[in-house]
Amino acid sequence: MGVSLLSTFTSLVNVPSLTISTTPTIRFPSNAVVIRCNKMDTDVPDENVLRRREVLKCFGAAVGMELLASSGSFVEMASAADLIQRRQRSEFQSSIRQTLSAAIKGKPELIPYILTLALNDAITYDKATKSGGPNGSIRLSSEISRPENNGLSAALNLIEEAKQEIDSYSKGGPISFADLIPFAGQSAVKATFLASAIRKCGGNIEKGSILYSAYGSSGQWGLFDRQFGRTDSQEPDPEGRVPQWGKATVQEMKNKFSSIGLGPRQLAVMSAFLGPDQAATEALLATDPDVTPWVQKYQRSRETVSQTDYEVDLITTLTKLCSLGQQINYEAYTYPARKIELSKLKL
User: Fold this and answer.
1) 3 state SS of 136
2) How far apart are CA 141 and CA 49, in angstroms?
């Protein structure tokens, strides 16, 4: 209300001369807060006075309430700043998706390789040492040239070109590869979801887009989007942490997924990430009794209109992979908001 509680307490400053009536309530102006102090017996006969300790208690209460009342403005300011940063990051992410979507639309043949690139960058995570993970190290020449990353250079080139465009309009600094590679994986996944919806509509792009918008899983990406603010590694991750998916046995794949806390279910749902031919990958995975039921589950799901089970489980697994071992800077890519000079506004 704009009234200071301390301003109502001046009567307590002069301690020696302070007296009160027999009613144990000190009343302040009607728009102030009432503070009650106990009546104390003193050596002065027939007088009710407050001892110094009681005065200090009352004064402390007034100060505390003053601070509490004024703290609301600080909370409001902090909340407003947080909302501004969230909006800035959200708008930046929307622009990133548009750039990546256009790049992928121009080279749809690279979608399987973008998926594998995102997987291989993230799956280097080691639980024992808490190192590796989606830190963008796969961009380094000594890592992208490894056997398990054979054939992924074109996908990386697409991401590097997209990065140049994104950095050109970023107001909060250049985007890290550690953030951009997972977002490229997300865009590639969304492209496969949309392509599936279009196929179910007989190849009609407009109807397929409506179907995906109506029944798709766009609303499931919230946690993925919040994991935004990773830092690039300046060193390659240790060798030997990523299988060559095209040569690995199902047991080797299971062992790798198990080492980062994932199981047969997650292995099955990530089949599109394990090579350019998803059908061939699933045929191999289906030879393992632990993985077979999950492969069949997701194949059935992909035949439904919404393919909900497949999409939701894939998004959940990708979200977990892309957060392994990473410290997120939730203020990344934010920038000072432009101040509006009210005097220059034309009303």
Assistant:
1) coil
2) 82
Q: Per residue in 243-262, pLDDT tens?
A: 999 999 999 999 999 999 99
Is-contact 181 118, C-beta < 8 A? Answer: yes
pLDDT confidence tier of residue 343, bands split at 50, 70 and 90? low
pLDDT of 341 above 70: no
Query: Quick one: DSSP state of residue 28?
Result: -
- Mean pLDDT of all residues in 328-340: 86
Amino acid 116 reads T
Please tell me the distance from the alpha carbon of residue 186 to that of residue 153, in angstroms, as a whole number: 18
Plot region of 332 (φ>0 → left; ψ -120 to 50 → alpha; else → beta):
beta
Determine the Cα–Cα distance for residues 274 and 271; give it in Å rounded to an integer. 5
* Structure tokens belonging to residue 48: 């009710």
Is the distance from CB of 213 to CB of 222 less than 8 angstroms?
A: no
169: which residues sit within 8 A by CB, 6+ positions away?
95
Q: What are phi and psi of 25, to 5 degrees?
A: -130, 130
SS3 at position 100:
helix
Q: What are phi and psi of 23, to 5 degrees?
A: -75, 125
Helix ranges (DSSP H) in the chain: 52-106, 111-122, 141-144, 153-169, 177-200, 205-215, 222-226, 250-259, 264-269, 278-285, 292-302, 308-321
CA distance 185 to 90: 18
What b/e sequence results for 297-311 when a residue is b if at least 16 CB atoms lie within 10 Å of its CB, and e otherwise? bbeebbeeebbeebb
Query: Residue 131's beta-bridge partner residues?
Result: 126
| DSSP secondary structure string for all residues of 228-293 | ------SSPPPTTSS--TTT--HHHHHHHHHHTT--HHHHHHTGGGS-S-HHHHHHHHTTSTTTHH
